[in-house]
Amino acid sequence: MSRTLETCQLIERSIIRKYRKELWNPFVAAVKRYELIRPGDRIAVCISGGKDSMLMAKLMQELHRHSEVPFELVFLVMDPGYNELNRLKIEQNAALLQIPITVFETDVFEVANSSEKNPCYLCARMRRGYLYSQAKQLGCNKIALGHHFNDVIETTVMAMFYGSQLQAMPPKLHSANFEGMELIRPLYCVHEEDILAWKRYNDLEFIQCACRFTENCAVCDNGGGGSKRQEIKTLLRRLKRDNPDIEKSIFNSIHSVCLDTMVGYKTKGQLHSFLDHYDE
Questions:
Q1: Close Cβ partners of 135 (under 8 Å, ≥ 6 residues apart)
Q2: Is the four-CA dihedral 66, 67, 68, 71 of positive or negative sign?
Q3: What is the CA radius of gyration of the chain?
Q4: Given CA atoms 161, 27, 29, 100 in this order, what sign does their dihedral have?
Q5: What string of DSSP letters covers 62-115?
Q6: Tens of pLDDT along 254-264?
Q7: Cβ–Cβ under 8 Å, residues 211 and 222
Q8: How much is the pLDDT for 218?
Q9: CB 30 within 8 A of CB 186
Q10: What is the dihedral of CA 75, 214, 84, 194, to 10 degrees?
Q11: Distance CA 75, CA 133 (A)
Q12: Does pLDDT of 278 surpass 80?
């Protein structure tokens, strides 16, 4: 007689079986391609409570169960000042998905929202700093964030359109302020539409925008651009009607930058011009 699976087991099975091609395979591919996990790593999987970070936590949990590479995980939740409903939703989802979270509280929202100058930027900066600090206290050498394929594309286009620079979002980077700490993005190759499909299939409900500054916000992305990011999302959807591979082309372009054709570029904080070596 077949046994009845628990809700969490059904959700895990959907990742490994039904959405293997869309979620599990690109997740594993990113981990391998960008060498995100190494033997002996102790990784703080940072959970904000949204669909992306919750899925990332389950993927990392599954990888830990089946990987031959020895590494440790801490599922870290920072409460920057959530309202009671959002805090409760995160705790309920963690229990449903059987993710053993470690929660710590901060006053990020209170401090950032009292700032008259760019509270979103301050909030994002403070949250990142607190996560690094707490992860280091817990003996971790890496933090994992839930940025996905579409975040990479949108950030690249936003930097060009609104930041006047060709700048991408790397799959991993060393912390400039916390020695020995590294940030990794395991969902780098996972598409948002597939995360949404997984969420709907399992009838899951996650918090969308926890920002106390814009309590009823529907498009805020915690300091990543807000309405400008939404504009880029809309633009990319329009472009995909004529060119379904537009996002793939943008993604591939950041992997094959031809510096020989660039008029100027910056590396390690130093600005360079093509004139520097033009006559050589």
A1: 44, 46, 74, 76, 142, 143, 181
A2: negative
A3: 20
A4: positive
A5: HHHHH-SS--EEEEEEEESS--HHHHHHHHHHHHHTT--EEEEE--HHHHHHT-
A6: 999 999 999 99
A7: yes
A8: 38
A9: yes
A10: -40
A11: 15
A12: yes
Pairwise CA distance, residues 126 & 130, whole Å: 6
**Within its chain, how far is the Cα of 13 from the centroid?**
23
Strand order in the sheet with 142-144: 101-105, 72-79, 42-46, 142-144, 182-184, 172-174
Tokens 């990011």 — which residue?
229
| Residue type present at position 241 | R
User: Alpha carbon 46 to chain centroid distance?
Assistant: 9
Phi, psi of 92 (to 5 degrees): -65, -45
Supply the pLDDT for residue 217. Answer: 44
- 15: nearest Cα among 24, 6, 28: 24
